[in-house]
Design goal:
Helices cover 15% and strands 24% of the residues. It has 227 residues and is an alpha+beta fold. A hairpin with a 2-residue loop joins strand 8 and strand 9. It has two domains: 131 residues, no CATH class; 66 residues, no CATH class. The longest helix has 13 residues. The strands form four sheets. Strands 6-3-11-12-14 form a five-stranded mixed β-sheet, with no helix packed on it. A four-stranded mixed β-sheet has the order 7-2-1-13, with no helix packed on it. It has five helices and 14 strands.
């Protein structure tokens, strides 16, 4: 259903040592990585919608018994939600590499180590060196499209725009993983500063990321589950 033009903007606010406050009737759904028999991610499961009100709170400490929603577990568990993510832009941090006629770039600060940028046989760096081949170029572009955090970017043509998939405003709750924030929803820190608005970012929900509020892959290290 199309939203009214006068509807409030869709936003996410980080509460100090608390949850994410999501406003604006943002669609919420469960998703998961599609993997090969070798455990290599190759796609995303379509969102399974979750009932949510126009404004809702998402767990950030990883301890809620009503995941993905907050149940105030952060108040009794001594959760330290201090935000340590960089406040500059991805353009200021990324490293660029030649990729055929274009470039591919990578931003370690936003990487959540989802695994779409490599497999048993190759990775994005190797493909970039061979991107003059149209088939290789397309494979590299698909890796970029699937990257959930947008840490891997590509400018296929020297005078063109960065490659970005068309994503509707929504939040995907990844099985045993982070929140996928899609479509350019703004994320505002607890101190009131808005992070760079991007088409896709991943937010920590295990409580252990060292780049809060963004995911750095710590959920895999600590064995976080939806429980």
């Amino acid at each position: 259903m199309q939203r009214d033009r006068d509807s409030s903007p869709r936003t996410i606010s980080v509460r100090e040592d608390g949850p994410y406050i999501v406003r604006g009737d943002v669609p919420l759904g469960r998703t998961a990585q599609v993997e090969t028999e070798h455990g290599e991610p190759v796609g995303w499961v379509p969102d399974e919608p979750l009932d949510a009100s126009e404004t809702y709170e998402l767990c950030r400490c990883g301890r809620s018994k009503t995941k993905p929603f907050c149940d105030a577990s952060h108040e009794s568990g001594g959760f330290d939600g201090a935000e340590t993510a960089p406040r500059d832009t991805i353009a200021e941090r990324r490293y660029e590499f030649p990729a055929g006629e274009g470039t591919v770039s990578f931003d370690l600060a936003m990487c959540q180590h989802a695994g779409y940028c490599g497999d048993r046989f190759t990775n994005w760096r190797r493909l970039a060196r061979q991107a003059a081949d149209p088939a290789v170029r397309e494979r590299l572009m698909q890796m970029v499209r699937l990257c959930p955090s947008g840490a891997l970017e590509m400018r296929p043509d020297p005078d063109g725009d960065q490659l970005e998939p068309a994503l509707a405003e929504s939040i995907g709750v990844v099985r045993d993983g982070p929140y996928l924030v899609r479509g350019g929803i703004s994320v505002t820190s607890a101190d009131g500063e808005t992070y760079e608005v991007r088409n896709r970012v991943t937010l920590c929900r295990c409580g252990h990321s060292e780049t809060k509020p963004f995911c750095d892959g710590s959920h895999a290290r600590v064995g976080f589950t939806d429980g």
